[in-house]
Fold each of these.
Amino acid sequence: MIGGDRMRFDTVRLATGPRLHWAEQGDPDGEAVLFLHGWPDSWFSFSRVLSLLPAHLRALAVDQRGFGDSDRPASGYGIPDLAADAVAFLDALAVGRATLVGHSFGSFVARHVAIEWPERVARVVLVGTGFSGTNPVVRDLQASLRDLPDPVPVEFAREFQASTAYCPLPPEFFERIVTESLKLPPRLWGEMIDRLREYDDTDRLSTIAAPTLLLWGDKDALFSRAEQDRFLAALPSASIKVYEETGHCPNWERPELVASDIVAFVRGA
């Protein structure tokens, strides 16, 4: 691995095919927490949270296939494919069980892992999730991607990413977010959202056995409070933490609170 004392970076070839780039922080023998980023992001989406986690946790943040510095195969971009990658990643690192933290698009991946591989999931934290990926906002986003130029215009990426946050962000952090999003090939911007809209786990949410926590900003422009309530109705054992004056990306906007809530949840507090 390469990197500094706290953050280490590596790549690994998965049994499912692609080579994934990933970041690791903390005790290699500590309790594992796997972070699954949103669209069109990378591991860096969780960087502000990772820097605040205690050293005794083993924090693992991947670039999912197609994103960041991971491989971009010709196919395999459905939510079930990405969930299989997540399990294969745990296999490759010999991690038996992990807490899964998924943001937005990545929250649907985390949900699928929890549904299909419950024995691999200790807990689930869903940041900015929705009841489903088929709401009007996602539908409008899908339509806006139909004629997306190649290369993707920097201003398009910047405007989209800015629209997802409500709190002001550090300029250097935000510009890195934009840079990371532009690593996603133009052909995959629309395909990923197509695959999200095809995915429907709403009739299986009640089968999630792992303790589940929703982290949601009350200014989220993508997924409403009504969607959080529908999720909670489907899985009554889940709980929710609401961040006031916060948009769709609490992991960007309120990293101190997100890190604290993840740590408390892992501890069972």
Note: Residues 2-267 form a domain with the Rossmann fold fold (CATH 3.40.50.1820).
Amino acid sequence: MLRLSLVSLVLVASACRTTAPPPSDEYAAEMRHQHDGETPAASGATADAAALDVTSEEVSYATVGGQAVTGTLVRPRGAADGLPGLIVVHEWWGLNDNVRQMAARYAAEGYAVLAVDLYGGEAAETPDAAMALMQAAFGAPDQTRDNLRQAHAFLAGRGAPRVGVLGWCFGGNQALNAALTLPTEVDATVIFYGGNPPSDPAPLRALQMPVLGLYGGADTSIPQPAVGAFEAALTEAGVEHEVHVYPGAGHAFANPSGQSYEPAAAEDAWARATAFLAANLK
């Protein structure tokens, strides 16, 4: 089991920018353990996405390290610019078709959804490959923050009056990273079991948006004391928030990919996330 001392994320606030050093190799190994034996097959989270009345296109939304970054923009069919925006950050497998289908589900709720790519155009087919891609992304924090910053600018440039961010697993960690990078620009943050939740309230005081955290009670990669410490830090920092834990649910219970999907917990989390986004973005 990963001990709390190894999942503490050191965050330093500076001029509205918070830097987060890469998590330890032991954290990455624990993520590898959580996904042992899995493949990035579509889970129940994506089952009905194909029937949604949305349009999807690949767009170049950023230039990072001199390279163009391509993501997937999904909107309700026939919708013009000016919808509220939502940045969707992929799980540890990368931006694959399962994540694109989840983006479509959120777009059908009335958002311009940009599914971003933090892996440089790669997506994993095995846990070992996913771990390597995740570690590479954590090892380039400046580029990751720049990617997320430009994703927000892309949606704002399309007329989005408010922009939220949501992610699963690795993406949940990066959803909070986006919020800390843009503490006054992001309007709502949804964290599905993002690892390394900070226990220090100091960097969180910059956040001007509400935060929704959704965690599995049986997720050994994010021990319950760590979740409780994160919630306490949000409270002390004065951040509006809701943290919900699903007893018995493991890591990745709502992932669009993989074999850890747990329908009851995932469906309740979907209802909470969509209600939270509607209240804060619409």
Note: Strands lie at 12-14, 17-19, 54-64, 67-76, 85-89, 112-116, 163-168, 188-192, 211-216, 241-246.
